[in-house]
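Chapter summary example: a protein plus beta-D-fructofuranose.
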Amino acid sequence: MKPFVLFLAFFGSFSAPQSGVQAQAEQFRPQFHFTPERNWMNDPNGLVFYEGEWHLFYQHNPYGDKWGHMSWGHAVSRDLVHWEHLPLALAEDDGIMIFSGSAVVDWKNTSGFGRNGKPPLVAIYTGHREGRQDQRIAFSNDRGRTWTKVPGPVLDLHMADFRDPRVFWHDATSRWVMAVALPNEKKVNFYTSPDLKQWKYAGEFGPAGATGGQWECPDLFTLPVEGGGRKWVLIVNINPGGPVGGSGTQYFTGKFDGKRFVADAGVKGIRWADYGPDFYAAVSWNDVPKSDGRRVWIGWMSNWLYGQDVPTSPWRSAMTVPRELMLRRTPDGLRLVQKPVTELKKLRPPSPLRFGGGTFADAARWLAAHNDLPPQMDVEMSFSDVTGKAPFSVNLQTAPGESTSLAFDPARNRLVLDRTQSGQTGFHRDFSGRYDAPLRISNGDVRIRFLLDASSIEVLAQGGETSLTALIFPAAGSRGLTLASDGATPYVSAITIHALTALTQPSN
Ligand code: FRU
């Protein structure tokens, strides 16, 4: 298979004869976000780094552009930016669908599946059929290219809903740990194993935090705290019952001793990883080398409310950009901080457009003079002296009367994304909306970065402390940015606009 299919598929839409409907749909094909070549995708699965490759498996229907026949699709990347599509890794068979799960490098060959002194990759997934979900394993001896399923479950509670095993090697106790969701009980159970085959119950967590839907796709890892130290973080995806309805991702910080997770004392309320409608099933890569040291995750950039109806073809769904995770100490406790992986910077051309600072009106004039922007952008803006100022907004203009706006309210410490006028919204009644996120303002400064692709916007504010991800389906053509305010305005310290044109170049 050829690398850069993402790019080729997009340009193919111009060179190949096709109907107007198809051309219009391909217009929404993201340029720097991962999409399947064809058909349906949901959760990222089996994220593992091995021999220089970041593996991305994903929930995939090989036969259609709606959910069904769940199998694991597969792609690899050497830089988290360019993805190479590979053949289907694990296919539904015997009426058993391959639901979400994880993958590990079994470095010590505890499973005995290794060959020729090389560790196997082992995938741990949920086998699904009507009325029953159990945990199963498969292994690969050829860098994930082909897989052998081990017959029968390795963990079965005879339950209809028991899924999404997240397995990792726990150094302190020298054994494998599995975090797996009991969706309806709103619990995560923990199991331990010496060999990935025999699993023993160790502890459980929940209900806690957001419990308004099924708990799914847990993850558990340590993160560095800015300024020093490390902390355990438990991720619990929930659907419905997310921050804006439908799907959402929450997290807990705490302690984990290899058996039990105990959330930090005094943690009240819910902490969301993202306040937008389109961030779900986010999980992180296993086995990232110590020399790299990052915790990187990726989410399904959609929502179960309307994900099967978005106006794209011949594929449906994209992933978010991969993001590096950290924790930050704030007056309200530890907060998750996300940063698009630095590798994405290689898509920035050498000379961005730069506004070096001035009044709000100066900045608005500068933006008006640069109103022919491309559909793929990485934009950074910083405002100062916002305290006591009126609400202000940054608007992405995509056609006459069509815009997506980001409004900042210094008095309420909020950031609101409005996609009610963002383009096509009528394909599902739950799509159009405004999404409100907390914005912690210190010293009167507001810093935002947003990544704009053909059909999405990912907003990271205050150095990644607030994340808001949303799909949009705007008209084709150039984009403009405008600033608006009804009252006293803040100072604009800087604007940098990187037109992300570099993806059309082969990677090196
Ligand atoms: C989350 C989820 C998982 C399940 C998979 C099925 O989006 O519902 O819990 O394993 O999708 O495709």
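Key point: Residues 42-43, 59, 70, 99-100, 126, 163-164, 216-217, 281 surround beta-D-fructofuranose (CB under 6 Å).
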